[in-house]
Amino acid sequence: MRIIVGLGNPGEKYTNSRHNAGWIFLDNLISNPNWQQSKKFKALIHKEIDKIYVKPLTFMNNSGESVRKIMDFYGLLPRSLGIIAKKNQDLSGVLTVIHDELDLDFGKEKNSTDSGSAGHKGVASIINHLKTKNFTRLRLGIKNELLKNKIPAENFVLQNFSKEELNDLIDTAKRYRQKELF
User: Fold this and answer.
1) Are 86 and 122 in contact (CB under 8 A)?
2) What would the pLDDT profile of 43-97 be if each residue is shown by its tens digit?
């Protein structure tokens, strides 16, 4: 079983925002997404035979709450004495988190494992709830000329992608789908 999480924010006003790169990516990675709302997981879920795709509905800064619920439900968090999740467990084989990355130029992607949040509050929430940073991440670059004009990061990530950028992100997700990278 593999859990693939796309980070983003629920709500119409965030639909095409840079912070929703993970959600946009998932919507275009899956051939025919059939998102089901799960109150138990506080997320939108799409299930396949050996994969569960997840879009947390907890808002970005609380993404870890949803991810933890799913990992617990499917028994994917190793436990000490059967009770408490073990710290620093290697979850790279079962968990992938896809998210926007302000430190990468738009159109660049970077895979990483066992790295810190680099200030990304959604990733920090997941690290905090799982007690490990050792999971796979697909970081999608969102930096562009606007950032160079000194727009505060918290405002920049909530701005919408340009039409060209959105099309490029969608093409990237489709390329991953064609190569069956997830």
Assistant:
1) no
2) 999 999 999 999 999 999 999 999 999 999 999 987 765 666 678 899 999 999 9
- Boundaries of every domain in the chain: 2-178
Predicted confidence at residue 101, as pLDDT, reads 96
Q: Nearest to residue 96, comparing CAs of 57, 137, 134?
A: 137
Query: Cβ contacts of residue 66 below 8 Å, gap of 6+?
Result: 41, 42, 43, 54, 56, 57, 58
Classify residue 132 as exposed, middle or buried by CB count within 10 Å of its CB (0-12, 13-18, 19+). Answer: buried
Phi/psi of residue 126, nearest 5 degrees: -65, -45
Assessment of whether the complete model's pTM goes beyond 0.85: yes
How many angstroms separate the CA atoms of 147 and 149, rounded?
5
CATH, range 2-178: 3.40.50.1470
Catalytic residue chosen out of the listed positions 19, 99, 120, 129: 19
| Tens-digit pLDDT profile for residues 16-48 | 999 999 999 999 999 899 999 999 999 999 999
Q: Is 46 a catalytic residue?
A: no
